[in-house]
Amino acid sequence: MKKLFFVLIAAAVFQIIPLSAQTVPTDKQSEFFYYNVPIERVYPYRRGYVIKYRKGSIGMATTYLPREWFDDAASKGELIYLDYGPKWPYLTVFYKQGQFSHIRLYVRRDRGHESWGNIPLNVNLDEHFDNVEENYRLEF
After folding, report:
1. What angle do CA 76, 68, 77 make, to 5 degrees?
2. Is a pLDDT exceeding 60 seen at residue 112?
3. Potential cystine with 52: which of 7, 12, 41, 105 (Cβ 3.0-4.6 Å)?
4. DSSP class of residue 73?
5. Residue 138 CB neighbours (<10 A)
6. Per-residue pLDDT averaged across 1-6, rounded?
7. String of DSSP letters for 56-72
8. Cβ–Cβ under 8 Å, residues 31 and 96
């Protein structure tokens, strides 16, 4: 009889706790959503960063991030350095109510890491950095 009592108590406790822990008030939902995108290569350029990233399962795409986005705390971009370890560089793009809000670029601190690349001096990519903020969209 004691065993049956403990089984019933245990069953009741394990039924109640998960139900109460899963209750989430709907008024606390964020208006932000984000995408994490693994980066293949980061190319520093005089006007910003050229980012090669994976698009879908087999495709590649390029995006251009102006340097002004990373200049101060209230700007559109945040540059975060990853120290040694297994983490690979990635990009997090935040949207607020469906519109681009800001971006976080996670890169390796060591510029000798294979994720960093170099753009030859005679290559001009300035046109890709013009009006980026007005029409910024990341292809997925």
Report:
1. 25
2. yes
3. 41
4. T
5. 16
6. 59
7. TTTEEEEEEEEGGGGSS
8. yes
CA dist 124 and 40 (Å) reads 21
Amino acid present at 65: L
Q: What percentage of the chain's residues is helix, strand, coil (to nearest 5)?
A: 20, 40, 40
Cite the beta strand spans of 76-136 per DSSP E.
Answer: 77-82, 90-96, 99-108
Asked if the model's pLDDT at residue 55 lies above 90, the reply is: no
Q: Which residue has the tokens 């009006």?
A: 131
Specify the pTM. 0.74
- pLDDT tens, 84-107? 888 899 999 999 888 888 999 999
**Furthest-apart CA atoms within the chain: distance in Å:** 86
> Which of 59-91 are b and which e, b meaning 16 or more Cβ less than 10 Å from the residue's Cβ?
eeeebbbbbebbeeeeebbeeeebeeeeeebbb
